[in-house]
Design brief:
Elements: E1 20-22, E2 27-33, E3 37-40, E4 43-49, E5 53-56, E6 61-73, E7 76-78, E8 81-89, E9 94-96, E10 99-106, E11 111-113, E12 116-118
Parallel strand pairs: 1-3, 2-4, 3-5, 4-6, 5-6, 6-7, 6-8, 7-9, 8-10, 9-11, 10-12
Length: about 160
């Protein structure tokens, strides 16, 4: 018989895939950097940085700014989260801070107080307006300069 394997719909991890596991009895303060996949169920205060995967378990309490490739949150985060690939806020997550990533998933039941920003792919879109400086006399260097990247659009 031939068996076909189904692709997993969600990003999951097994205990054997973890590079490190920080349990609920652990408390870390400072800057934590890592490579691989880390599961955090303890308390961490400070800053987290990685290009890989961070999983914050249901018992995890993080008071830090987070920057990682993939961030999966089921616990509590107080601080901003930047995911270069994706950020998933799972059903039991409590996030108090801004989230920024190319892909953001917020499941039902999540407590999220902050701003959400989608990043990747924005440069591929055609801009609605382009600011072009008009020819004319040179502006007075002492006068305040207008930011040409900001254009007011009327509807």
């Amino acid at each position: 018989m031939f068996w076909k394997k189904k692709k997993a719909a969600k990003v999951t991890s097994k205990a054997s895939d973890l590079s490190a596991y920080i349990d609920e009895a652990s408390e870390i303060e400072g800057k934590y950097t890592f490579s691989g996949t880390v599961m955090l169920n303890g308390k961490l205060t400070g800053e987290i940085w990685s290009n890989d995967t961070l999983i914050i378990g249901e018992k995890g309490v993080v008071h830090a700014s987070i920057r990682a490739g993939i961030v999966l949150v089921s616990g509590e985060v107080r601080g901003n989260i930047v995911g270069t690939d994706r950020v998933e806020l799972r059903g039991t997550a409590r996030v108090f801070g801004d989230v920024e990533a190319a892909v953001i998933v917020v499941e039902e039941g999540v407590v999220f107080e902050g701003h959400c920003r989608m990043t990747k792919g924005r440069a591929e879109r055609t801009p609605l307006a382009v600011a072009v400086p008009l020819p004319g006399p040179d502006p007075d260097p002492a006068a305040p300069q207008r930011d040409l990247a900001v254009v007011t659009l009327k509807r």
